[in-house]
Amino acid sequence: MLAIALLAFVTFQAAVMGDASGAPQPSFLARHRQIDVSGLAPVIILLLVAVILLGATLYPAYRMQIRPYLEAHQLMRANGAFEVKEHFAALALLAMPAYWAAWRRPLAPAYGPARRMLTWLIAGMVWWNFIVGHIINYISGVLS
Amino acid sequence: MKETLPARAMLFSMAAMIVYTIAEYDNWSFLRYYLLGGFSFGARGGEAGHFILWYGWVATAALAGLVIAALAPKKLLARLPADLVWMVMIAAILAVAVYEKRWFA
How far is CA B86 from CA A92, A138, B54, B58, B94, in A? Predict the structure, then answer.
């Protein structure tokens, strides 16, 4: 549930943040696209940290039970996708202070591009981790 | 300290992501998790079995980021371009892709 909430919030923020510069938008459409999603940032930080901490507690079980199966059955791509997932989890976690600074109110115009790019990159990583997590879950369900 | 906090947070993330990438490539880790024995500072003997370095990579990166961000002079923080943080993140993602491409060959 936490992972789904994180996915929903970060996707929504990335989709509707507009140019995230904090500056007034000139056109009618741009103004309507500019919903204030800065309030989501603390929630996203909390959810991301919680999801990664929960994942970190489950990681040894994956290494003992699922990874040996993936290796034994030559499921190299599934194994590799999980390796990428663990790196993405680490990078997203380490990026949280910068993400917090970028979304800190009042929004600093100088942080606009960083805010936009960090949000997109983190959203992409969250999607990757969610999809790979489900694939690995499916594989582990098939083996049990 | 309070007025430089956002810039220090940016610097923390940049430094930590760079150190994480180096730690991952060179297996720098002061902390290991042994599947049969739990956490350990440094390496145990060969009979200790399989271990996970990921926790150690994250801890090493976070610690290095914390030290660098705390010690950075105000002059450097004032000049630090915020855009560098997402460039570092993209570089780290590319480094991950290069490192892990062995699984997809």
Answer: 11, 33, 22, 19, 12
